[in-house]
Specification:
2 copies of one chain form a homodimer. Chain A has about 700 residues and is of the alpha+beta class. Chain A has 3 domains: about 30 residues, no CATH class; about 260 residues, Thrombin, subunit H (Beta Barrel); about 280 residues, no CATH class. Chain A is built from 25 helices and 20 strands. In chain A, strands 1, 2, 3, 4, 5, 6, 7, 8, 9, 10 and 11 form an 11-stranded antiparallel sheet that branches. In chain A, strands 13-12-18-19-20-17-16 form a 7-stranded antiparallel sheet. A two-stranded antiparallel ribbon of chain A has the order 14-15. The longest helix of chain A has about 45 residues. Chains A and B meet through strand 16 and helix 22 of A and strand 16 and helix 22 of B.
Chain lengths: ~700, ~700
Amino acid sequence: MSKYHTVRNSALTFVLSVLVIHSAFLTSALAEEGMWTFDKPPLKQLKERYGFEPTREWLEHIRLSSVRFNDGGSGSFVSPHGLALTNHHVALGQLQKVSTAAKDYVKDGFYARTPAEELKCPDLELNVLVALEDVTARVQGAAKKGMSDEEALKARKAEMAAIEKQSTESTGLRSDVVTLYNGGEYWLYRYKKYTDIRLVFAPEQQIAFFGGDPDNFTYPRHDIDFALVRVYENDKPVENQHYLKWSAKGAAEGELVFVSGHPGSTDRQTPMVGLELQRDHLLPRAIKNRERRLAALRKYAAEGPEQSRQAQRPIFYLENTLKAFGGMYEGLKDPELISKKTTEENEFRRLVAGNAEWKRVYGSAWDEYATSTRNYLAQMKPYRYRRLTGSNLANLALQIVQYVAEVKKADGERLDGFHDAQLESTRFELLSPAPVYSGMEEALIANTLQEAVDQLGPNDPYVKGVLGGRSAAEVAKEAVAGTKLADPAFRKSLMDGGEPAVQASTDPLIALARRVDPFFREMHKWYEDKVESIEVSAGEKIGKARFAAFGKSAYPDATFTLRLSYGSVKGYPMNGTQAPPWTTFYGLYDRAYSFGLKDPYELPKRYLDGKNSLDLSTPLDFVSTCDIIGGNSGSPVVNRKGEFVGLIFDGNIESLVGDYVYSGEKNRAVAVHSLALIEVLRKLYDAGGLAGELTGKQ
Amino acid sequence: MSKYHTVRNSALTFVLSVLVIHSAFLTSALAEEGMWTFDKPPLKQLKERYGFEPTREWLEHIRLSSVRFNDGGSGSFVSPHGLALTNHHVALGQLQKVSTAAKDYVKDGFYARTPAEELKCPDLELNVLVALEDVTARVQGAAKKGMSDEEALKARKAEMAAIEKQSTESTGLRSDVVTLYNGGEYWLYRYKKYTDIRLVFAPEQQIAFFGGDPDNFTYPRHDIDFALVRVYENDKPVENQHYLKWSAKGAAEGELVFVSGHPGSTDRQTPMVGLELQRDHLLPRAIKNRERRLAALRKYAAEGPEQSRQAQRPIFYLENTLKAFGGMYEGLKDPELISKKTTEENEFRRLVAGNAEWKRVYGSAWDEYATSTRNYLAQMKPYRYRRLTGSNLANLALQIVQYVAEVKKADGERLDGFHDAQLESTRFELLSPAPVYSGMEEALIANTLQEAVDQLGPNDPYVKGVLGGRSAAEVAKEAVAGTKLADPAFRKSLMDGGEPAVQASTDPLIALARRVDPFFREMHKWYEDKVESIEVSAGEKIGKARFAAFGKSAYPDATFTLRLSYGSVKGYPMNGTQAPPWTTFYGLYDRAYSFGLKDPYELPKRYLDGKNSLDLSTPLDFVSTCDIIGGNSGSPVVNRKGEFVGLIFDGNIESLVGDYVYSGEKNRAVAVHSLALIEVLRKLYDAGGLAGELTGKQ
């Protein structure tokens, strides 16, 4: 499952950020399409198609049992004692961070048999959505008549920061204003935030990610992609009435199921001109960028076993992202998809043009949107390459440089991520005690600097200013060799010392970040003024035009906020035959032996030794028609009774195009079956206690 | 595996018969492409790519170990005592014919533990290719200068009949003149013929055809599609020095392997205008025709369990054919394929046009070919629908009516199938003691008559003449109710009685055949004169032009004659991941349980009861890059040592387009692994004796 989405308060820049404002909604929800917000669940469809009418309590229980993993995934509470379930690949970052060369929990797995053995995650924040409030009037109202697009954008952002600050101060809850329906609506989402998260269980990565990159995003599949953490507050496990009870049977074929999770982003309502920009520029460049970084990491990993261990996680994420991008790119090159999207847009525009009032108020939006993309193209290269990407350490340095400058400003004028309401989470990230792998960071910094040289040329002011005539490799080497930023206490001293401390610092990586910062700010300002402001204004018009033309019966594009999808357990036509509704443990062993147990199809020793103890006909993974996308990784699949029946970990290859369009015939969400988790916990991991906590039966 | 090909001496008419003369050869053999004749094996490729140089003895041994099953498949000798191995689906016709409502060997399987228990096949003829001789000069020379195309066709056919007759009389061998390279070459193939074939072993159809129509033509696959017969002569098993020794290990990944078998037909060198005819007319009509017949059979099968048993085999073949046609049709609609083929043809034609002599002699061929297809279209409907299709019984009737007329004529002037050299095989077919299912035949005759009404209209002379104003159902009912043709003795009496007996017969089905015959003959003559003669003449020019332009280094299109393919055991990219080189018994059980053991994924009882006795990691089916097509069903896969390593039973879905083009990347031949056969014989069927005969080890 793709993890290429990030939360709003992360300062990581992102390849598709030009399109962050593409939330939208569909004119007609087809089949079992839709990632629905909890304030507008698809009650009509559920009643008509399944005769199911969820109560307010049912919806609230599912919502409060759902957990956002803020490094890009989803999860759920599955015991009354704060046990939260997610994917191995979502927990992978934390697993890596608590591992060492001597204790490799990624490779060997991890199991805390007692509370004392649980390992604290260095920098994991979990969120539970406890309240939603419509703040559309306040945000839209901030942009006054007569303001330019640039002024309007500033006003909206300031208003959003003010709402968040006010809410944080009055409730103590994490408070995010979320843009929905292309700006047709703005909502305040309040989260209960947890930062004391402890690892309880993870299987070997080999079985969690069985089949590796080849089998990723495909089905039939045989992964046991799960991990368990326990959520603490005040040094005690959270005792939570809202958790999902474990289904004794799992889901049957044809059964109605739900996915409650945090889809990262979709582009289903992005105007055609935006999709063309993605197809012709953004995606090809993003693919090249990732391929280049992947090559740098593979080179580093080849230096030795410890290097290989360190690089394993970023390599996994990059391969995953590349496969996802590849599927999206294929989708955008499909003439049928383009023709379908074009027809839809043309019909919508004709409808708007046919009503004099709509035409006057919204008619210009598409041309304006096109202007923003034209503007973007004019400065695309400096915008994309005058920055450091891929290195966590360099990112920490740049954020510290920005932090000390931003916190001095009025709240509404700060860069995103540094508003008062966001500072706690940002500081939590910046002060993470997670280990820093210097060799790998050096390779990544050298790579991003050299990429700038290759893309911008040696005479670009950024290249000259940042490298000062030296080679990318030299600059990276010096910066990493001399920096003390690996130490969180040093980072804290700089942040506490404020601008004077940062300006005076002779730390070479801080010095590098100081050289990068003005270029970043210049391009950021250009982007806000010439691209984002126009896009937001145009997007809001398109969003409102949709409400006017089609009413408010559909769902907004995904925004890494909590959504409910529904569907049924169902195979699909595949490769000339049919994919089954589920796979079994027989299939796991088949796939392993049919490739001669060779990488990536080797099995952990316990799976070879213990296979006779398993009931091999137990369902392993299963598919449903639920509409999901990257970010849904770790989401629970629940039945009508609100019981846990499965754990989302992927979409099939046919779902990659789901960024742009949902195909009910072949789009499938792939989940680990609830029975499979209990089967391996009890029979292979001697983890009956844990299985008992999950099922309520020892 | 498609079974839609038929041998030359079968009088069954065939949807693609307009294109029977499409044998040809490729300008350059890509990858491991090619179905090579044994007189021109791909020695250069084998040496360059695999360092393998087969000896004359090696080739002869493989050839003489290969067996053609004349109802449309292939096989091989696998023991010194006449044991021949083929697919269950090739033996299915005979299995059905020896089954009864009480003893259903199709469903339950069959195993003769002693020679006495072996069951004689009612009408199975096997051929072994013992000699090949180039007769191009004689056949081409028969068409003299100044002859019209029609006269030339007659002259060629007469010469071919004369060559066959002469050869049969002088050698006692079955002798077929085969058209290769679009008529660029003609070869006399002499076969040792066997007609005393006895069933030895067949598993349950459920396991031979596990996964049914959905999994047919796909991979990964889990079928154990085999059957064993014993070949007798003079009431004793044939003791044969040429048989394939059983490999103790089977084939490894990447290993060079060969397929020796009888691919039915390909259209790789058919001119574009011929492919367009297929795409736009022949295939769509063939598909409708089969769908209609399938619906009629399903309706009949629904009448009861015995009806269902009777209809099982034709339903299987029709579903198989429809899936194959579907794949071919998709291929022909693929713009990439069409563009590739068009470019190739244009380049070839430019080359011919660039040489004054070639242009003069061959340059007109493509336009002539186009004329033949235009002519065909003008009378396509009466040609296709003024005939009885689908009913074996009606076919027997028509052939008897024709037999008595044809045998009176000079040999060279008879319809194909009735030449002196062919009469023995034809009589063997016509006098088959196989059971006739009257109810099913009535349904099929009613269907073909009604199809004629629907396609030609009530006023067509054929419809009027054959139905005489009554309904198709009435005519079919009366014909079947009153006929004695189910009795081979009655058939023999008519054939022995000659034209007077047939003319005087009051048998209502003979009467129906007599009414059909003149229409059939009229359309047949029209087809020969206006279509076939032009096509053969044009085809021969194209074939010669290829020899002139590219030399004689390639292989001809398939013609249900013995061919050698080579390749290696190799997975392939599939559905976003990779298909493994082989599957295992684990996969069989996975597929069964992942569909909840529901049809077509239920398992025979012995497979459920006996699964713990199996080594589930044993390879089950495997794929190789060998170039095969329908008709290759039952072909042995052999290694460099000439040992048996597998049993071809299918191509993957990506190979269906192989009728037109070979794709080395994804085209795969699917075979049962030699180890799988021994595993089930020994452990599930208590057939150690048979396994011992195969492996040479008790």
